């Protein structure tokens, strides 16, 4: 199992292929210090999701190693990884149940107070309170009680409550109104504070604020640096 981690992440000369002879990553080396945010950018098929897949250990590399705090992920169980590496996916996962249950997912021991605090911190509390039954409002997996922006804020509240040391975020591309957009930006800052993060970034504002912007092309890193450097 993985001990309590600080959140240093290293990709050490990673080669990966889904199909033999067709490498999706061709020698990726990347060092990320505890608390840093990395924006992964690049054209479709450049390898952004593949990097995330390896960090989540959905796959193991063909060559090279992925390390967290110097520990090879091959030596770590998926379960112990899950508790410290959190994921917020693009098509934000909402299940049928109350808003409260949806936020609490992954932290079943959380108190009502903790749930409200998390929602407040990511600007989700006000819209939740405007729903017919507040935190007890029932939502459906494929229902449309919630807008895309609201779903995103809800998933942020869930992630904040789970409080992983390393957070992976596949930013939604859906167009969102300006007001919600601002709320999301602000919430993102709160959510990322003090943890290591990897973001497949689509918003310019997110890219601008990243500590390290990593530009991928055909499975290699072609450029990296912060917004001022690139
Ligand atoms: P996008 O912006 O479209 O999400 P991406 O940068 O996330 O693109 P990846 O999904 O990492 O790109 O894909 C990298 C390469 O791996 C591509 O050539 C892609 O076709 C291939 N690939 C991705 N997933 C699979 C899979 N499950 N099986 C086979 N090949 C795959
Ligand atoms: Mg992708």
From TrEMBL:
Superkingdom, natural source = Bacteria
Signal peptide range equals none
Domain spans labelled ABC transporter: 9-230
Where found in the cell? Cell membrane
Q: Which residues form a coiled coil?
A: none
Protein's recorded name: ABC transporter ATP-binding protein
* Species this protein is from: Paenibacillus sambharensis
Portion of the full sequence shown: 360 to 589 of 609
């Amino acid at each position: 199992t993985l001990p309590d981690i600080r959140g240093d992440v290293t990709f050490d000369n990673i080669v990966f292929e889904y199909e033999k002879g067709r490498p999706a990553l061709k020698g990726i080396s990347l060092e990320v210090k505890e608390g840093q945010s990395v924006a992964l950018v690049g054209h479709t098929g450049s390898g952004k999701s593949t990097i995330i897949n390896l960090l989540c250990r959905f796959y193991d590399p063909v060559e090279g190693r992925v390390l967290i705090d110097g520990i090879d992920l091959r030596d770590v169980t998926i379960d112990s990884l899950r508790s410290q590496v959190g994921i917020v996916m693009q098509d934000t996962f909402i299940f049928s149940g109350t808003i409260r249950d949806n936020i609490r997912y992954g932290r079943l021991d959380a108190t009502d107070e903790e749930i409200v605090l998390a929602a407040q911190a990511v600007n989700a509390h006000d819209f939740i309170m405007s729903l017919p039954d507040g935190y007890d409002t029932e939502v459906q997996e494929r229902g449309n009680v919630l807008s895309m922006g609201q779903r995103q804020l809800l998933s942020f509240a869930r992630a904040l409550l789970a409080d992983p040391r390393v957070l992976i975020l596949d930013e939604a591309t859906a167009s969102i109104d300006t007001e919600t957009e601002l709320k999301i930006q602000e919430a993102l800052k709160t959510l990322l504070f003090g943890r290591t993060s990897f973001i497949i970034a689509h918003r310019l504002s997110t890219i601008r604020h990243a500590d390290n912007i990593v530009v991928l092309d055909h499975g290699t890193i072609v450029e990296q640096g912060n917004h001022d450097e690139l």
